[in-house]
Specification:
Elements: H1 13-17, H2 22-38, E1 59-63, E2 70-74
Length: about 80
Amino acid sequence: MYNFESIAMGLTRGKLKTAPDWSEWQQAEGVMLDQYEEQGLFGTPVPATDRDAIFNLVWSYVVKELDKRKKARCT
C-alpha cells in the first residue's frame, strides 16, 4: 500500500505552534523522537571544541495524503 505525502509548503514550526492542532504536531514529534531513540540515533552528549561544526536540529512537517496522518521529521 502506498502512502503518498502531500506537498507541505508553508508548514513551519512557527506557524504550526499557533495552530489549533499544535498538540497533534507535538505528538508526531514525540513519535519520531521515540523512533530515533529506538534506533540508537542519539548518543551521549560531549563537550564541543573550537574545531567542531554544530548544527541545529530542524523539524520538517508533512501530512500523509492517503490517511491524512501528520508526520514530523527532524534533520
